[in-house]
Amino acid sequence: MNNPTTLARLGLEITKMKKSCTPVPDRTFVMGMIEMAEFASLIDSRTANRYRDALDAKFVERNQQIKRAAA
Q1: Residue 16 contacts by C-beta under 8 Å, 6 or more apart in sequence?
Q2: Considering its fold, how many domains does the chain have in total?
């Protein structure tokens, strides 16, 4: 049920988060990609949740890096 191209693209977008200059809008964009992929049945709910968790972890990590650099 999981489309390999979709999984690869979502993984790439989540990986790019660690270098994001604007993590909030980038997170919103990638979350939308995950939602759309799930809605279109390109990925199942369990996979979508794993990608959401990975995205949240990368977002928190990047946000902390930016805050440390600004301090």
Answers
A1: 26
A2: 1
Specify if 17 maps to a domain.
no
On whether residue 24 sits in a domain, the answer given is no
Tell me the C-alpha to C-alpha distance, in Å, between residue 4 and each of 11, 25, 46, 53, 63. 10, 25, 15, 19, 29
Listed residue (36, 64, 35, 66) closest to 52, CA to CA: 35
Going by C-alpha positions, the residue among 57, 48, 47 that lies closest to residue 23 is 57
Q: What is the pLDDT of residues 9-27, one digit of tens each?
A: 999 999 999 999 999 999 9
* Domain span at 56: 37-70
